[in-house]
Amino acid sequence: MTVPILDFSRAEVVINELFDPDEYVRTEFRTRFSGQAVAFAEAISPAFARFPQFSDDGQHCVQTALVCGFVHGILDDLVTSMKLLLTGKLTASGNLLRQAIEGVCMAVMCAYQGTLSIGDKECNYWKMVEEQAKEAEGNFAARQFVKNFERLGLNMEGAEQLKSTIAMYHQHSHAGVVAMAYRMELGPNGVIYIGGHFDEAKIDGYLAELEQRIGVAKLTVQLIDFLWPSIRAVGGNSVG
Questions:
Q1: Based on the structure, what is the number of domains in the chain?
Q2: Residue 240 counted as domain residue
Q3: pTM reported for the whole predicted model
């Protein structure tokens, strides 16, 4: 299916694009990748099944509420990232996946019962988040997570996968040559698109992106199970 080339110098064309459901792009993705969409749904649905009780257990104090807030954000970011990918908006989808990964890092560090090495200091990370300290901003989270990886003691199957995913999406979700390529047709015409598009030459790339999101969805289930004992322990100490 050919994507129409639009004249964005006309305001009415821009308005139409803003409200366009991109059905022609969605149809291409639905036809090619419905199996991956099902795999994503099956991977993330156990996390949604766990979350209500997990969240209830985490409402006893600021520390646990922060952890639950980050996990909720991970779920939202993953679903929205997948929706954007399936409408051909790769850069925006990648940005949200990076944010989900940052949320994973921040949830783990907030749940940690002890100090972490942040900058050149030993700090309670969750307190820094509560105080909105510069060092606790999301763009620093992945670096701090990797620095404290051994101390955090992640005995999750997907922990090493998370480290490699962090490295990949740091470069893929910022302005640069990769972001340029995401907006261009890789075929001989080299059309540059505004908004979502489907490019036959990017099939392998789309598959890799979809598998990444399926992997992070599975990791999120492991994450909740890993964090839950800490949530209950911290909450119990708070109530006591």
A1: 1
A2: no
A3: 0.89
